[in-house]
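Records of this kind hold a single protein each, on a pair of labelled lines. With that in mind, the following record should read easily:
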Amino acid sequence: MLAKRVRVNVYGEITNGLYSGYSNAEGVNNVSSYIICRKSVNDFFRGVVIAVVTLKNKEVKCIVAPEGEVFYEPEIRERLKSLRNVEIQSMNCLYEKSCGAIIIHKSAENNYKVLLVKNHNGRYWSFPKGHVEKGETEEETAIREIKEETGLDVEIIKNFREVSDYCPFGRIKKRVVFFMAQTFSTNVKVQKEEIDSFIWVDLYDVHNKCTYDNDLRVIKKARENIDKLK
C-alpha cells in the first residue's frame, strides 16, 4: 500500500490533525487507516499512503495524507502518540529526510581536504549524513550524525545549504540536506555499525571519487563557497 493513491472515507477526528477512516484503491477496499493533515479534510478526499505501521498487536495500519502534503517519520510518530493503547512495532515511510555535511579540513599549508565515507549499504563514496530525529533542526541533525559516524566535532559554515531529492528504488522519496562544515582534526573514529571506510581527499579531486550527480553538484557548490573559510 505504501505510495498508493487512495480514496479516503473519513469517520471522525481523533485529535487536531489526526483522523480515523478507511482507504480504497484499485483491488484494495476498506483498509483501516489513520489520516494526518495540516488542514482540515472533507469526509471524502483523495490522498496518498505515506506510511505503513505495524503495531505490537500485529495489526497493520495505513497512514494517509492529502496529496501534496509531506510528513517525515518523527512527525508521524508524534501525531500517533495521542492514540491510546497504540504501540508501534515498525514503520515504513514514503518520505525520508537526512542531513549531513561536506566536512572540510584546512591544513597548515592552506590545502583543503574533504572527508568521504562508505557505509555498509553503499558501494560509493559520499558524505556523512543521517536521519532527522524528533525536535532537531537540520543543522543539529548534521552535527549529531557527523559526531556519531566519524567522532569529529564540526562547525557549520553559514550560508551554505544544498538539497538533494531522489528516489533510489522508484518509490521511497528521499531528501538529503547538505551543509558545509569545518573540522580542526583529522582523527576519524568511524561508527563500525554504520561506516565501512573513510578517506580524506583534496577538495579539487573529490569529483574523481564521487559518483552520484547530486554529490557532484553539491561539491561544486562547496568549491564556489570555499572563500568562506578564509
